[in-house]
Amino acid sequence: MTVLVLGGAGYVGSHAVDMLLKRGYDVAVVDNLVTGHRESVPANVRFYEGDVRDQAFLADVFEKENIEGIMHFCAYSLVGESMQKPLMYFNNNVGGAQVILETMEEFGVKHIVFSSTAATFGIPEKSPISEKTPQKPINPYGESKLIMEKMMKWQSQATDMTYVALRYFNVAGAKDDGSIGEAHKNETHLIPIILQTALGQREFITIYGDDYHTPDGTCIRDYIDMEDLIEAHIKALEYLKAGGQSDQFNLGSSKGYSNLEVLETARKVTGKEIPSQMGERRAGDPDELVADSTKAGEILGWKAQNDLEHIITNAWKWHQSHPKGY
Ligand code: UFG
């Protein structure tokens, strides 16, 4: 039986493929290579290049593979871009989920674990954020993921399919040998930009605002290590296979770091000065996003193991060994 990894050539998907293989799972990958990299998936893994919105293509993959469960990572995920191109987000994220769920039903595939996001919560009234916190997204990206959660919920009620939605907080890090990692065309995320500055590829990092309601005035985020994140997906899949009911979990370390604290940690890890300057606020950034991951501990037996220093250490290995990405 095979785990089908949708978006397996992307940043998170490629790490999932790597860990699934290490754990002895049989794996097949689907990716349209729009943001993914073929080089991030081992050459001997069965690879189907195509788009999940293409029903005939996806049905052909389901025909060929004996699928026990799906991990779904193929969605657009940039908040800023989603504000500029909302329909592109609904088309890919919601439209993709629809075809995936229809194909699962057609072929009797029962389980799916998929990436949701802290962005479904919008600006939460209190922190940390638990699964009981109301979901009120403030951008099309978060909205598209919330719609995906709801599609899964209704479909699971109507059929015998079960799902787990994993709401990621800020994912960072890389495989511990630095062989796969984060490579976006136009990087917008804090840690990779800091490390590109450490490499001298950028003159300085601009920190977006120091007038937030936080102790040092910069935004606070909860960073989750890639390895911990994938562990949660494997536990979620096993939970579903064992008959667990459909559910949602917030995944973070339950510890927040301000943007300045992240920068300081990167200076310590890299031993580089990393020039920085203070800039204006970036639109749509909530003051603080920290996860309460108690529920994932209770039901999945999952807890984040790795701290920010570990995350940056592995990300630094990747950036040093792949300064131009793949
Ligand atoms: N930041 C800077 N300078 C930069 C880049 C980022 O100061 O050059 C700041 C941002 O303003 C923010 C923090 O660093 O305060 C983190 O920003 P990221 O862009 O790294 O990440 P986000 O918190 O915006 O978003 C990420 C994912 C989303 C997900 C969210 C959940 O990209 O998909 O985490 O917390 F929804």
TrEMBL record:
Pfam families: Epimerase (PF01370). The keyword NAD applies. Keywords: Carbohydrate metabolism, Galactose metabolism, Isomerase, NAD. It catalyses: UDP-alpha-D-glucose = UDP-alpha-D-galactose. Its cofactor is NAD(+). Its EC number is 5.1.3.2. One of its GO terms (molecular function) is UDP-glucose 4-epimerase activity. Pathway: Carbohydrate metabolism; galactose metabolism. Residues 3-252 form the NAD-dependent epimerase/dehydratase domain. GO terms for biological process: galactose catabolic process via UDP-galactose, Leloir pathway. It comes from the Bacteria. Belongs to the NAD(P)-dependent epimerase/dehydratase family. Homodimer. This is UDP-glucose 4-epimerase.
